[in-house]
Please model this.
Amino acid sequence: MKPLARVILRMLSRPTSAGAAGAVMAAYALLYLWLTGDIAGGGAGGWQATFPAWERVFQARGLFQFEPVGLLTLGALVWTFSPLNTLLAVSMGLLVGLNIVAGWWLWRTPRQCGLSGSSTGLLAAIPALLAGGACCAPIVLIWLGLPIAGVLASLTPFLIPIALLLLVAGLWLSLRRLVGEGSPR
Amino acid sequence: MIPRMLRYSALGIALSLVPLSSMAAAPPIQETPTVPVVHSLASFREAVRAGGPGKDGIPSIDRPRFQSAGEATLKDGDKVIGVYHRGQARAYPQRILVWHEIVNDELGGEALSITYCPLTGTALGFKRGETELGVSGKLVNSNLIMYDRATDSEWPQILGVAIDGPLAGQGLEELRVFWTTWGAWKARHPETEVLTDQTGFVRNYRRDPYGSYNPTSGYYAPDSRRLFPVMQRDDRFPPKTEVFGVRGPEGALAITREALREEGVVDVTLGERRYTVIHDPGLDTGWAFHNPEGLEIRPTELDFTAEGVTGPGIDSLEAVNGFEAMWFAWAAFYPDTYLYEGQEAP
Model:
């Protein structure tokens, strides 16, 4: 386990890698919060922040979806802020970011057996991106007018744990290979 | 030893009383529902789907707050659900109810649940007694399935009859609520109170996740598709077309809004029962009556007040509940519904 953690630390100590992972994390977290409906339009301009419902911080609305505690408005954007949803979004974003950076490092690592570059990390990010969208896929599908939203609604609770599992597994595989093959100096 | 036995038996008795006491708090019910149940309860149960959010994932408003009509920031064209009960008028903005679906309220000293299902476009009121209604998270024919917090029985909103739980087969007592606009409601009830967005929950009340009613778009557009499977499909109208529905012991009746608007008074006989449905031009809805004597009601002699429709003969009629619904949902619950499209095309 320790060598794997050392690879992560080495990644984060490099400005380009850390910057890339951070940018992916932020972009993913925002996309996730937008797709799940925590961030949406409807703002009346200006900015405002109220936190009227702290007592609901651990109250679930569904699986992996928690009650918002605060309302943040900035211009046209409205964020119904839940600390746990945000933590989940940021954690998944970080995992996607690390997967991508690990995949990139593996790709740059000289091959010993002539294998083509690894795309594990990039592949693992796909289910996570899908999961982020899946939480409110029914709503996206309403916009698109597709009738399969009803079928998807019953699947959504499983998509986040599956995505987390795939992301962790993908990262673990990439890191193990980086440890074995020696990461870029 | 003996004190311990006493304690256990006391506990046993107390526990055995729990279901009794919760049954006592059950909502007021009709053991023989006055509304038709066309499919078997078992087939309703088979058709139940998970809507996405879990039980209470869409939280009912249990401590509603109100403001005066003057304080409300609604546009005249915004949809509201209006209730007038024992001299008290209240409006529940659709844009708040879309996030909560049920308000456990009290009007004129009576405990009521005001319910709204966005997916079927239906607003109904129920007497709730000492308990509250909540959102089960399940749907049948896209319609909200409510549960009561005393017995956990499950009640599809349009059906008004429990399909599962201890009260299966029994009906809730309904109360007329109005699906109308803020401008129309305010004109009829200037003293109305309005539900505020201080619901105890944080939601983006300026945004409707399904679409918009002012102007109509998204999921609410007549031609847009439904999202969940239905027990019975009927393509005579686009799925989201709004009809005015009335149910009686002999079956269900749907009147197109155009026919109701144009004719003012619609007389329909279902089985042996004669119904008269009167169009209210102010609220743009119908008032339904059982008219056993076949009294003739003339639109020109009618007056519409806060109390309802008045005019010669109205007092001798028996009011029947009616509500607007999206056609696909009405036809799914009542496949053999009588459909009134106007005198030219009965």
Remarks:
- The first strand of chain B starts at residue 29 and ends at 30.
- The mean pLDDT of chain B is 91.
